[in-house]
Amino acid sequence: METILSGLQQALSMEALLAVFIGSVLGLIFGAIPGLTYSLVLVLLLPLTFAMPTEAGMGLLLGCYLGGMTGGSVSAILLGIPGTPSAAATVMDGYPMARRNEAGKALGTALFVSVFGGLFSLIIMVFVASYIADVALAFGPAEIFALVLFGLSTICGLSERSLTLGLVAGVLGLMLMTIGLDPLTGVQRLTFGFTDMMQGVNLVVAMIGLFAIPQLVDTFLSKDGNKVDLGKFGKVRCTLPTWQECRQNLGLVTRCSAMGTGIGAIPGAGGPIAAFLAYAHAKRFSKNPENFGKGEIAGVAAPESANNAVTGGTLIPLLSLGIPGDPATAIMLGGLLIHGLQPGPLLFQTNLDTVYAIYAMVAISYIAIFAVQLWGIRLFVKVLAVPGEYLAASILVLCAIGAFAIRNSMFDVYMMIGMGAFGYVLKRLGIPIAPVVLGMVLGEILDTNYRTALIMSNNSHATFFESWTAMILLGLTALTIITQVVKRCRNPAIPANDETTIPNAKNADGASAH
Amino acid sequence: MNAGKFSRGLGIVLTLFAAGWVATVLYTIPESHIPGTPGPRTFPLLLGTILGFLGLVLVFSPAKLCLDVPSAITNREVKVVGGTFLVLFGYAFLLGKIGFVLATPLVVILVFKVMMGIRSWTKTLATAIIIPAVCWLIFVQGFEANLPRGTWLNLL
Fold it and tell me: Which residue from A50, A167, A213 is facing B145, i.e. has the nearest CB?
């Protein structure tokens, strides 16, 4: 009880509340602006969290993540352009509703079910995460290696069109993390004698470069500077669903939220898949399936509840096992590491109050999102039309000082630019960026646990098959990869997540972030 | 360029990179000091081998890999991308020499005038003052973080 109160106290501190509110607003804005993403604002905010108390830093990042997921629906409904890939399914019925002057109703419904889905997944997360963490406490190096390998197999899901290129990206990410001092022996690896390189490639610096610089180049390349015509929606207002509409759709929204939470908990699956599956489910069980695509309210409620429920789902493996399921949670993992917190089973033993604070901040963030979007929608919609030149100049400056602020080192600024060039080349070649980040996040854990397991077993690879847990996890890894390979071999023209591809969906985070 | 040629080209580049990586690992990272156990070079070596294998997959089975051939690079793209990285390197250089306070307005003006083609000097100068001021307020006053100081000139 004391731990719960301590967690609540942390979450309800003035700094944390303010950080959650600011994060939620920034997430809503960046999630909604076509051409920008909440992953971008997450990486730009990350260096700022250094100087903050842990709970405030986490609140800022959580608010931004949750706000970004919700904000994507605004431009999906008003402009027919999903703010995030997760909001792509919302376009199908949200935009037709807006065109027949029901934008307020569509926005209000999307907001209401988003908050419902998010809070639903939070409740599931509270019950499930600690249980998984308890089980994971008994893991040794072999089990952790198998678990991380399973986490890495999600690269298949993040691989956009080509599985091979996704694997290439994952391996490149793993390679980057081998640069620097070897964590087990202290031997220099690929530093070429440079002192600055001994600390390796900083994860946050790399993420700023990989996500923000290609975005900056795109902003410079777009001739219209991301200009958006809001037209008649300048004075739109959110209209919440009526009690009767809530009762009619309660069953559907609950089922879709459960679906979203489950899909979110599978690393690499993410919001777009959950949203499209929920949309298909709503259409299949609707009494009026012919109305879908023409402005059916259930066509907005189902995907929005599912994609927001994904947020709680993705936080389950992140907190309980230390495995991020998508780039956004990978960035949040970076935030936790900055404050000396290692997500995973030990977090529930040593920092349980922080875990409770995170739960509370998720709830507070959804309250803030609800209030901001409900009452501030007009002001918020105006931000959608912010000219590209302001964004470009701000991104450029924030990238440089963000990278510098991490270790007060100009070397990191140059490293960030180098990583940006690397990210742009990858993007240009069609190699996804998300697996690079996943590889970087999980690389060191994979390396150290693989070697520790072998050292402890006198170099016997049989150690990986001695426990049921490791065997199940390795089996799941093999199953994930084989399923994806078979799926893509049967129909190579269709990417694994083809349902996430819609004609006017904006660039998916440069990396298909969710 | 068709998908086959693109796949082969990319595969060759990746295979060569992997070969270079493996050679560098073997040449620069020592073996484990405990004989018969994996050492610091094991993991990088394994990764180089996997990348080489993936490169060969791209070389030898290009037709089934469903690659999107990148669009041709236009002159405008070369100019913009080159310009962006010149600005970034220039900004990093200036940050180290004249510090954040002086370098940032210069770079904002460059971005507005050269990269984005904004004609209004009022808008440009106002942004060139506001962005560094806001950053200074947030980073230095708000979070007591350090901003880059110049070695030639420093106003912080």
Answer: A50
Instruction: Give the model's confidence band at A503: pLDDT under 50 very low, under 70 low, under 90 confident, else very high.
Output: very low
Q: Who contacts A1 (Cβ-Cβ below 8 Å, separation ≥6)? A: none
Is the pLDDT confidence value at B135 over 80? yes
B113 in any annotated domain:
yes
Mean pLDDT across A311-331: 83
pLDDT at res. A413: 94
Identify the closest residue of chain B to A209 by CA–CA distance: B88
Contact A417 B88 (CB under 8 A): yes
pLDDT at A491: 63
Residue range(s) defining the domain that contains residue A129 = 2-500
- Which residues lie closer than 8 Å to A478 by C-beta, 6 or more apart? none
Q: Burial, B33: exposed, middle or buried (Cβ in 10 Å; 0-12, 13-18, 19+)?
A: exposed
B81 and B59 in a common domain: no
Contact A502, A178 (CB under 8 A): no
What's the number of domains chain B is made of?
Answer: 2
Q: Who among A167, A400, A429 is closest to B91 (CB)?
A: A400
- Chain A residue with Cα closest to B31: A187
Is the residue at B156 inside a domain?
no
Q: Is residue A509 part of a domain?
A: no
Residues of A with Cβ-Cβ distance to B112 under 8 angstroms: 389, 393
Q: What does the pLDDT look like over A81-114, one tens digit per residue? A: 777 777 878 888 888 888 888 888 899 999 999 9
| Domain span at B115 | 75-142
Higher pLDDT, B55 or A291: B55
Contact across the interface for A48 and B77, Cβ inside 8 Å: no
How far is it, in rounded angstroms, from Cα A17 to Cα B74? 48
* DSSP track, A147-214: HHHHHHHGGGTT-TT-HHHHHHHHHHHHHHHTSEE-TTT--EES-TT-GGGGG---HHHHHIIIIIHH
- Radius of gyration of the CA atoms of chain A, in A: 22
Contact A48 B138 (CB under 8 A): yes
- Within-domain flag for A507: no
- Across chain A, mean pLDDT equals 82
Closest CA to A273 of A504, A498, A45: A498
Q: Is residue A22 within 8 Å of residue A37, measured between CB atoms?
A: no
By the 10 Å C-beta count (0-12 exposed, 13-18 middle, 19+ buried), A165 is classed as: buried
The pLDDT-based confidence of A178 (bands split at 50, 70, 90) is very high
Closest Cβ opposite residue B70 in set A184, A405, A429: A429
DSSP A235: G
Domain assignment present for A453: yes
Q: Could you give the CA distance from residue B147 to residue B95 in angstroms, rounded to a whole number?
A: 9
Nearest to A421 by CA among A149, A131, A208: A208
Does residue B156 carry a pLDDT above 80? no
Closest CA to A325 of A153, A168, A444, A137: A153
Checking ipTM against 0.90, whether it exceeds it is yes
Answer yes or no: is B148 within a domain.
no
Q: Is there a domain that residue B127 lies in?
A: yes
Q: What would the pLDDT profile of B44-60 be if each residue is shown by its tens digit? A: 999 999 999 999 998 88
The predicted model gives A341-356 an average pLDDT of 84
Q: Which residues of B touch A402 (CB under 8 A)?
A: none
**Count of the separate structural domains present in chain A:** 1
Nearest to B92 among A165, A413, A429 (CB): A413
Beta-bridge partners for A189: A180
